[in-house]
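Give me structure tokens for this 319-residue protein.
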Amino acid sequence: MPAPLAVTSGDPSGIGPELAARIARDGAPAPMVWIGDPRHLPEGTRWQAVDDPAQPVPGGVLAVLPLTFAAPARPGRPDPANAAGTIAAIERAVALVQAGECSAVVTAPINKKALKDGAGFAFPGHTEFLAHLAGGAEVVMMLACPELRVVPVTIHIPLAEVPRALTPDLLSRSIEITHAALQRDFGLAEPRLALAGLNPHAGEGGAMGREELDFIAPLIRRYQHAGMQITGPLPADTMFHPAARARYDAALCMYHDQALIPIKTIDFAGGVNVTLGLPFVRTSPDHGTAYDIAGRGLADPASMRAAMVMAWDMALART
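Here you go.
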């Protein structure tokens, strides 16, 4: 059986600590250890400090690897003083997985501005920081739920910059990383990939843009000739209904909203963010810090629970 999941605190002023406490109380879907400052857990949380992630704790009790942060947490009010602690929790989780003491990293949401203001955090987000901790691994972001897996090839950039950023090399690497991860982490011997077009109607033969003709379709043909099950470029407005989704295992989309709108429509509460291409498993809930409801006991644990289930399944696939 894999080692426990390493679950990070995330921004302690957000909903991360209360989600971990709630999941432990209700029964975690996999063995887990939480990395953070116990002062940031909701009042009344049953927790136990452990020295070893595998140390057993009673049912309903949250196992905690204590990490002292600089300041208390005020729900809904991010404090740059806690930036270093938030980063340290991520680094500790990765180190534990790299040492074989934990099986996967499950990260709670962070506030990138607070990390930058308080600790000079120089990364756009979790994904890039984890790639750095992995020695500069090439990674892609996948959003997944039981009904759909999507990979945005370009991510957090203005829409006006997408055509320039969407290069044949970037698309090729995204295809190959996704294909390999579906085999290694999801147990799919011959993954079926579908590629969306960049332009409306997938360019309509060049009438609405030439990217499909110039490099997307030729790239797809190259992979088809190599034996990969890959289709496209497909019009994005017709590839996410149930019958279309049944024809592929993952869809690669050309920009952020093209990927995230369908998955958040299909499963807003249960989507999972997965980093593909890392030498270790990492998942995260597909939501933010939710400052507006932090500390009020209203946070829905569905996405965090789904992230833990997926991380555990992926860890099992790697054993």
